[in-house]
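Much of our argument rests on the idea that a fold can be written as discrete symbols. In the encoding step, the backbone of a single protein was reduced to a row of integers, each denoting a local shape. We regard such an encoding as a compact summary of how the chain folds. The record that follows shows the chain in one-letter code together with its fold in token form:
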Amino acid sequence: MIPMVDLKQQYAALKDEIDRGILEALGNTQFVLGPNVAAFEQEAATYLGARHAVTCASGTDALHLALIAAGIGPGDEVITTPFTFIATAEAIRYVGAVPVFVDIDPRTFNIDPRAVESAITPATRALLPVHLFGQPADMDALVAVAQRHGLQIIEDCAQSFGAPIGERMTGTFGVAGCFSFFPSKNLGCYGDGGLITTNDDEVAERLRMLRNHGSRERYHHAIIGYNSRLDELQAVILRIKLKHIERYNTERRRVAHLYSDMLRDSPYMPPHEDGIGTHVYHQYTLLADNRAELTERLQAAGIASAIYYPIPLHRQEVFAAEYASLSCPVSERVAAQCLSLPIFPELDDDQARQVIEALLGG
């Protein structure tokens, strides 16, 4: 069986260091906002090139807290993509704001900057682009739009840890960048975890308060906050894995490029690298008219596959009535055709060839 991701292999390679770090943290008994959390924040900020990195309990919380810290609230419009995980839009709703869905680029599957500018109204306050599947969005174009209209940018980097655009990492172009450390992510912990990057001192201070019950000083509460703190044990794991993230991303690109080479003359559309940034392939997602047939073919060969995402957000039950008149034809077509193949750093070339041979019916 070839799984979508093999965390057992990754753990086995790091087992001695992880086990030693976990036992040390257990012995220290500083489980909440402990020294490993503080060290990871500093190390992540340095790696990402951000002035501040503030951890929290999940990627969803990262989006939620970032929107609050940016001052987004009831009635504000936030332009985003409908082709993403629902957390992107949930976070907008959490603060009482309105998600404004605009269509995506048909090759990168990222938000289309031209569609963004057309959707701006007097109520628009922010843009929330997603670096989907590890492909950086066109941030130069989006920043230009935001500057022309006086808008803030909050980046959803849940799938793009370590993806550069030129000399800068995703997560450093807006007021905040929001990361997820769900176990299957390029940098993942062994549970939930999140991070927010910012270069704004005031935003960073507000984020630290928001994640910890609105408190700067213990039992002194200046604002209504949340209980959204990264666990010390997860920070141990993330510190160890962070040292390997460049290799992990390079190995994901190796697998992706082998897949794409083998699919070159096939009827299927492989992921497109537009050269704007470096794709780090959290997912390898192709388009196929016969998706159900391919899924069955792979399953018969003992190979996992997944559909990210089968229903665009404006067609989800929770949003369908409100957005009944909205058409995002590219997102709808991509959702009907997308299929993701196994991809993880430990997947070797022979296994990658097996995946494509099974896909092609060889």
